[in-house]
């Protein structure tokens, strides 16, 4: 009798056949696959299209080329952002403008487009005349046109995108791929050679744009697009004079493309960082900063410059009459009229100042002669400094010898500040003593002291009268003496005075 081996049960066979692989074998399998998936067989650097400012190669649909002074800068940006920030791009990329461009250039297939779904040639030509269809998007292309005449302002002009073999629009070519490293060797030396080659390629592929400075035109356009994408503009942060030139040029460019509402706050923020140096520059060149503040919609800069312009008016009228809008001139003229009216009211109150006796009566030659003389001297000094000097008399040989030169009248700012300070700033002790000595019979030490005491009372009344004109509405500290300014700085700029609101 022959014995045969007993077959295992069915359940045991199923359990054996479906047994999970060992941990070691599974780990080896996973590790091997992971290692092979990350292995590179090309030996070079794979190119990935850039999709960040200034070249959104994957999502951008507006190509802009700027050429100036032998330099070139290209951008691939988004129509949505450009149209939101600039009225120029909003109009030139609108459906009406695009339809007009298509109708005018139907033979050249209108604007170029990037096709996401390929159609036959007949549908392509038909859709070109009918407009964009679903699955397609337009691509716009702009170039900086310098015109044909010297001195003409360059402007972006829309061009036809260059068509490709597949009918799509022109897409920017990727940068040249660096040279591949030398063929690798075996083992460890191959890895080290690849690593050193990559380092050398990275080192030699760095651009040398830092060695050459960009032209003013390229700098302005680059700052304009940087602001559109919420990047800080490249403006001088040390030299305020250079920063003013750059900001003015950038604002002029933004005004051309109807983008002042976006660019203005950036300029305002940059200039306000100078603080004290900015206030001094505005005091030196108020008309220039008034125009800059208006373009930038900067309330602080505009108000600071306006106070200087109103105080100096009409000295800066020639620089502003043909360079700023009528609304700005109307604000200036209104503020000048208000200041002149306040000065006239204050001047009339100064001439009506009077002293009283111990009985409460106004002084006169009959009840207080020396007090009346003190009041007369103050009024005479005030009249000499608030009225223009008389016309000079014709010169004669005898009069030229005896004629004495009269000092020029004080400026309005200096006059009212001296009245506000009082004390020895005007009609001091020597002048009062010299005046009393004109009547020898009444000259004495006591009379001089009494005269000066009454004069101090008049000065105190005058200081209270001119106090409203002594207020300083500038951000710059000028002190009680005005800091060398010969005009008043009491003009207050209200919210309704800004011409852009």
Structure description:
The protein has 501 residues and is α+β, with helices and mostly antiparallel strands. 49% of the residues lie in helices and 7% in strands. It has 20 helices and 8 strands. The protein has helices spanning 10-17, 23-37, 79-85, 87-92, 95-104, 121-130, 187-204, 216-228, 240-256, 260-272, 276-284, 286-296, 299-312, 317-320, 326-351, 369-386, 397-402, 412-421, 429-436, 445-465, and strands at 51-52, 55-56, 62-68, 71-77, 113-115, 136-138, 140-145, 155-159. The strands form 3 sheets. Strands 4-3-7-8 form a 4-stranded mixed sheet. Helix 16 packs across helix 20 and helix 19 (429-436) crosses helix 20. The longest helix is centred in the C-terminal third of the chain and has 26 residues, at 326-351. The model is unreliable at 12-43, 107-132 and 163-212 (pLDDT under 50).
Describe the structure in brief.
The chain is an alpha+beta fold and 501 residues long.
Strand fraction: 5-15%
Shape: elongated
Give the low-confidence spans: 12-43, 107-132, 163-212
Given the helix and strand composition, which structural class is it? alpha+beta
What is the strand arrangement across the widest sheet? 4-3-7-8
SS elements, strand count: 8
The CA-CA distance between the termini, in Å, is 117 Å
Query: In sequence order, what are the helices and strands, one letter per element?
Result: HHEEEEHHHEHEEEHHHHHHHHHHHHHH
Number of helices: 20
């Amino acid at each position: 009798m022959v014995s045969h081996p007993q077959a295992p049960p069915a359940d045991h066979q199923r359990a054996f056949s479906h047994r999970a692989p060992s941990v070691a074998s599974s780990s080896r399998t996973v590790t091997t696959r992971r290692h092979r998936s990350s292995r590179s067989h090309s030996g070079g650097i794979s190119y990935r299209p850039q999709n960040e400012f200034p070249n959104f190669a994957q999502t951008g649909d507006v190509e802009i080329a700027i050429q100036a002074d032998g330099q070139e800068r290209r951008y691939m940006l988004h129509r949505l952002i450009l149209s939101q920030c600039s009225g120029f791009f909003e109009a030139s990329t609108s459906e009406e403008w695009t339809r007009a461009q298509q109708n005018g250039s139907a033979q050249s297939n209108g604007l170029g487009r990037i096709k996401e779904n390929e159609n036959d040639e007949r549908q392509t030509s038909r859709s070109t005349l009918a407009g964009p269809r679903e699955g397609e998007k337009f691509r716009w292309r702009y170039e900086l046109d310098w015109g044909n005449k010297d001195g003409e302002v360059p402007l972006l002009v829309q061009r036809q995108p260059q068509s490709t073999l597949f009918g799509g629009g022109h897409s920017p070519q990727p940068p040249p791929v660096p040279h591949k490293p030398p063929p690798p060797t075996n083992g460890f030396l191959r890895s080290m050679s690849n690593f050193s080659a990559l380092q050398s390629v990275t080192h030699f592929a760095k651009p040398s744009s830092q060695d050459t400075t960009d032209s003013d035109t390229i700098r302005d356009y680059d700052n304009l697009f940087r602001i559109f994408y919420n990047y800080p503009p490249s403006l001088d942060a040390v030299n305020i004079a250079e920063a003013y030139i750059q900001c003015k040029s950038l604002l002029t460019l933004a005004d051309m493309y109807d983008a002042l509402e976006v660019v203005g706050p950036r300029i305002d923020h940059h200039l306000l960082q100078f603080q004290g140096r900015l206030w001094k520059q505005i005091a030196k060149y108020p008309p220039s900063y008034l125009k800059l503040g208006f373009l930038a919609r900067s309330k602080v800069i505009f108000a600071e410059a306006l106070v200087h312009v109103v105080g100096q008016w009409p000295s800066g009228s020639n620089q502003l009459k043909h360079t700023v809008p009528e609304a700005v001139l109307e604000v200036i003229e209104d503020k000048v009229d208000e200041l002149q009216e306040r000065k006239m009211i204050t001047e009339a109150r100064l001439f009506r100042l009077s002293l009283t006796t111990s009985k409460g009566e106004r002084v006169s030659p009959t009840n207080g002669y020396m007090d009346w003389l003190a009041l007369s001297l103050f009024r005479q000094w005030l009249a000499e400094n608030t009225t223009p000097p008389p016309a000079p008399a014709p010169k004669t040989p005898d009069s030229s010898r005896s004629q004495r030169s009269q000092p020029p009248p004080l400026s309005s700012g200096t006059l009212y500040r001296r009245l506000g300070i009082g004390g020895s700033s005007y009609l001091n002790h020597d002048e009062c003593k010299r005046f009393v000595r004109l009547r020898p019979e009444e000259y004495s030490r006591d009379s001089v002291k009494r005269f000066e005491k009454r004069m101090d009372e008049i000065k105190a009344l005058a200081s209270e009268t001119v106090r409203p004109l002594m207020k300083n509405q500038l951000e710059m500290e000028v002190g009680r003496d005005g800091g060398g300014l010969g005009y008043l700085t009491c003009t207050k700029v209200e919210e309704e005075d800004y011409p852009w609101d």
